[in-house]
Hints:
Order of helices and strands: EEEEHHEHEEHEEHEE
Strand content: 25-35%
Mean pLDDT: 96
Low-confidence stretches: none
CATH class: Alpha Beta
Number of domains: 1
Radius of gyration: 17 Å
Strand order of the largest sheet: 6-5-7-8-11-10
CATH architecture: 3-Layer(aba) Sandwich
Bound molecules: zinc ion
Distance between the termini: 37 Å
Number of helices: 5
Amino acid sequence: METLCPLCNGEGTKIHHSRNRDYYSCTNCTGVFVGPTAFLHPTEEKKRYDSHSDDITQQGYQNFVSPCVLAVKNSFTEKHKGLDFGCGRSEIVAKLLQQKNYNSVGYDPYYKNNPAVFTQQYDYITSCEVIEHFNNPAKEFERLKSLLLPNAKLILQTNILQATIDFGTWWYKNDPTHVFFYTPECFQFIQKHFDFSKLEIDKNLIILSV
Length: 210
Ligand SMILES: [Zn+2]
């Protein structure tokens, strides 16, 4: 059975089944996605997120998000305006930046649902370990792009599905809130489709420039 890709509407081919979830590989953008029938109910999804750490003083947690934070510091100053999209309960990325006097605000559909953030545009948007949770990546990337100012950067962190990874044994796919997995080629598709001038990938960090 074929299912359409929620990023590019291409045809998905079933490549794997485990833990009651079907996984499809898109023949167009090469992203891998979970069939929509396996999406968690929002209440269940929030319960999973509630169990995540919210202690931003933990060094391990700070290290985990540091690629995103450093990427902001490398390209932007206190004068620039930033948004952390999907900031979670802890708002760790926005808070670590605020501690250095950076102007970053958090948004999260579950924990900081302040739609006023969508009435402005930003010099940078961070989204750290968020895009793998997108049920509708086409809609979310469209929105993110629309929120960026000229010369802005979209700074993403996710575990990239590299060609060397054996999908069947890949731990990252097993989190029931992870529903879309990006290959490097998939980010090239995103760059072209959403009209970004530049794409940089370094390990789990992806930077798309307007
Ligand atoms: Zn696709």
